[in-house]
Structure formats: structure tokens, C-alpha cells
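User: I'm writing a short report section on ligand binding and want a predicted complex to refer to. Could you take this sequence and adenosine-5'-triphosphate and write out the structure as C-alpha cells? A short remark afterwards would be nice.
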Amino acid sequence: MTGTPVPEPSERRGRISAGLDRLDDFTRHVRVFVSRYSPRVLRRAWVGTGHAINRWLPKGLLGRSLLIVVVPMLILLSVLTGVFMDRHWILVTQRLSDAVAGQIVGLATIADTNDLTDLQRAAIVASTGGAMGLNVEIMPTSEIGRLRRSSTDIVHSMLADGILKRTHMPFSIRDLKDDNRIEVRMVVHGGVLRVEFARNLAYAANWHFFLVWMVCTALFLVLVSLIFLRNQIKPIERLAAAADAFGRGRPVEGFAPSGAREVRQAAHAFIGMRRRLERQIEQRTTMLAGVGHDLKTILTRFRLGLALLPEGEETADLRSDVAEMEAMLEAYVDFARGDADEAPQPMDVEATIADCLRQMAEPVGRTVHSTFTGDGALTLRPTAFRRLIANLVGNAARYGRSAIWVTGERREGWLSIVVEDDGPGIPDSELEAVFRPFYRLDAARNQDVPGTGLGLAIARDVARSHGGDIELGPSPHGGLKATIRLPA
Ligand SMILES: Nc1ncnc2c1ncn2[C@@H]1O[C@H](COP(=O)(O)OP(=O)(O)OP(=O)(O)O)[C@@H](O)[C@H]1O
Ligand SMILES: [Mg+2]
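Assistant: Sure. The C-alpha cells for the complex follow:
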């Protein structure tokens, strides 16, 4: 069992983590300082807020790490979008609108000259406007209509600003219903200049592509970090599973430290701990077996010596004492050895219970009431489990009066077995004490029942090594109720 020791990784800590540690120290000092000198109401509010936030935070490491990645990204995106919208987009729209306003005013200036005929003016204005991407015509004065620009549209107001900056000619701006176009009318020499153009000529139109790209990239990055984070968390889950299996006495197969340095350190620490524990158990077992063996040799000598003595009342007493000591030693060594070496195997719990009842309860004339619900096929250490059931059923048969009730149930990942009898039961104050090795109540009760007082200690040992436990209490049938719960 004792293999070559695995070298545990030395605590190599980089300069960055040392710096972070110093930062931790500093914030701890600040916290202590603030909490010492801040009013109590404030302190309580602070603690309350902390608890409230904690309740809403994800509980798993994956969720928390993801939050640590996603929240800063969202903040960054919001800030970027805000700055972009505020500065870049408005600036570009302003430049575009200003350029269009300049072109319109230029056309208006041409249309306003006195030196040309109406036809010449119309031709020059139309062809120049066409070159600029604008639809331009000069309409009769009657088309002036009502020159209004009451719109709050940002493009309208920027266009208006651009025009007002250059000329004092009266003008109107309105949206045309079709095709997202804008129309500007301006009063010029002998008519009305009408300029019509696509809205995106004066407007940074495709800014939302920026948003779409940003959101899609962010989602993609979150997805990628999710995959990487999961890989970081898997070794921790494996370590937890290994520690759990070890705690339940199941074999820990193929577990090797992997993942980030800290996780590997924890895994090495776990492996070291497991090895030390196993060594300790082994040492204890070997020592107790040795002691038991030595004492048994002496007892055998003792018995042989007794056999040579003449028969009498005193020698008979001595002989029965020696026999009792031998039985105790046997039980003790058995207990110390335990069943830790036994490998878990698939077995039928229901059949084992029925078998124990048949062997231990029926021969002494107890009526048996036994039920089992759920699937009885489980992977347990068969001999140990049998010993557990046999000890409890044996107690019920030994201390009960006429009947034994055994109720087994497998539900929601747990196997529970309840053994009850109609005997004297155990007083509340002794319910924990009877689990101690060699602890018996019979002396006080003046009962002359054989036994060493190891049964319940062994039973609890077995239950705990399977990751479960035993509880004792009063039964409605008048005697003791022993409840075994094992993870299934
Ligand atoms: N069903 C029961 N009803 C009343 N008392 C009980 C019952 N089971 C156990 N006890 C009390 O608890 C004590 C400890 O029980 P435990 O099974 O550990 O030892 P034991 O039965 O005396 O000996 P062993 O089981 O080692 O042969 C018993 O001596 C007995 O006084
Ligand atoms: Mg017993």
C-alpha cells in the first residue's frame, strides 16, 4: 500500500501573485479600518447588501467566472458604444449634413443670379445638382407654400444649421413619404428652388452594423471563454469526485492531478492525505492484530495450565473468564481489522436482509415483519454490509421480546433500512454512548446476555465507510428503532 512518495510541488509563486497578495493585505487593512471607525448603521447596511448580492450571484464556479468575464465586457461595450454614438456618429452626420447644406446653398446662389435667363438658370442648376447626386428644379413662385421646419429630426436640424450659417434665404425642409428622401425648398430669384436627395447622403446611415458586429463578436468570445473555463473547472470536479469516493470508501481509480497549478496543488495534497490516512489505518490494524495475537498466545498457555489443575469451583470460574477473554480478543481483532480491504460488488440488499432475518430472528422465535420498496440491487461491500445488518437484527432478536420489524426503502439516491423491536429500548441519554466499543447497558440492567459491546461500533463503522450513518431512537412498537441511511 505504501508506494514511492510523490513529490509535492513546491510553492512557486511569481512576482505578480506576491504583488496581488500585498494588495489583498492592503484592502484587508482598509476594511478593518473602515469597519472599526464607521457607524454601526452603515456597517450593517454594508453587510446586508453583501448578503443580498451573494444570494443573487451564481453559486457554481463556472457561473461566477463567466460573470467575471462578461460583466467587464458589457461595461466596455457600453462605454465604447456611448462614446462612438456621442462623438463619432454625430460628428460624421454633422459633416455630411454640412456638406449637403453647402451644395444646396451653392445651387441657390446660382439660381439667384440676375445675369441668366430662366431657362439657362434651370439648365445649369439641374445639371450641377445632378453631378452632386441631388434632384434639382426651379418651380414657379406659387409653389412656395408654407415654409416650415418644425421637425426635431437630427438631420433636419443639422441641415438647417448648415444653411443658416451660409445664407439668409427663406427655406423649408421636409421628409418625403417615399424612399426615405428629404426635400429642401428655398426662395430664389423669380421662383422656388426645390432640391431633393436621399436621406443617407446627409446621414451616417449604417452605424448599427457596428453594434451588430460588436454584439456578435462579444457573444462569440463569451462562448469561447465558456469552453475554456469549463476545461479549467473539470479538474476541480474530478478532485471533488475523488475525495467524495474516498470518503465513501469506494476505490479512487485513475485519479491524477491535472489542470491549473493551484488545482494540481490541491490534488497533490489530497493524494498525500489519502496516503497518510491509509498508512495510519494499516499501522493501527497491524499493531492491534499483533497485540491480539500475542495476548492470545498467553491466554492459550493459561488455558493449558488451567487444564492441568484439578477440577473445582475456582478453576471453573477461571476457565469461563479465559473463554470470555478469548472471545473478546477475537471480536476486538476483527473490529480493528475491519472490512476496508473488501471491494464493492453488486449485490442484492433485499435478499441479504431476508437471509439475516431467517438465520438470526426465526430460530429464536421472533415474528418477522419485513418490507422492501424500490430496487434492491446495489454496489456495496457485501461482507461488511451483511455484518451491519446482522448486528442490528441480532440486537433486535437478542433484546426484543416477540417481534422484529424491518423496513427497507430505496428512493432519491438513498437506501434506508429501519430495524425495530419491542424490547426495553435504549434511554435517550445512552443513544450515542452505545456506539462506543465495548460499551454495554446490560451490566446496569442486570441482564445476563452474552455479547462484547462491539456490534453497534462495527455497524456504525461500516455505515460510515459507505458514506452513510446509523441513528437510534425509540420505536412506536416500544423498543429500539435503528435507522441506517446509505447513499445508493
Ligand atoms: N435493540 C436493542 N434494544 C435494547 N438495547 C439495545 C439494543 N441494541 C443494543 N442495545 C444496547 O446497546 C448495547 C451495545 O450494543 P452492541 O450491539 O454494540 O453490543 P452487544 O449487543 O452487547 O454485543 P455484540 O453485538 O458485540 O455481541 C447493548 O449491550 C445493549 O445494552
Ligand atoms: Mg449487538
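A remark for your report: Residues 77 and 209 are 14 Å apart (CA to CA). The pocket of adenosine-5'-triphosphate (ligand 1) is lined by residues 391, 395-396, 399, 421, 423-426, 434, 440-442, 451-457, 479-480 (CB under 6 Å).
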